[in-house]
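Recap from last week: sequence in, structure out.
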Amino acid sequence: MRYAHTNLVAEDWERLARFYQEIFDCEPVPPARDIDGDWLARGTGVPEARLRGMHLRLPGHGPDGPTLEIFQYERALPRARDPAANRLGYGHLAFAVDDVDAVVTRVLAAGGARLGETVSAGVEGAGRVTFTYVTDPEGNIIELQRWG
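Predicted structure tokens:
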């Protein structure tokens, strides 16, 4: 058994894919998808499902590592709530970076937003971490962290 991918449902899959490629060095895994059919509707539980998007290889794990799957449904439900770090369910993606503040600057310039401030703290038994939470341009939460 191995971890395969995490899915983000996007308002604009191409814009979001560019963001993750430019900011986090994710690499496209062709082909781009344009999928519909009864099998998709039955498997997802979404009547008349049609989606477009692509997989992006996450950095640091080699050519067979996990991907970020960014899909845009033809008929998507609206975002239910504003992003919050303590909301039940999936919380955030996390990227280990060399310079947290430099990546924050890049995220903001690319249309993302800041959720928290950059802080450093010792974590018992794990070392020292510098981290913050930001969002991508569609409001998905991302943790930026540096251990050392």
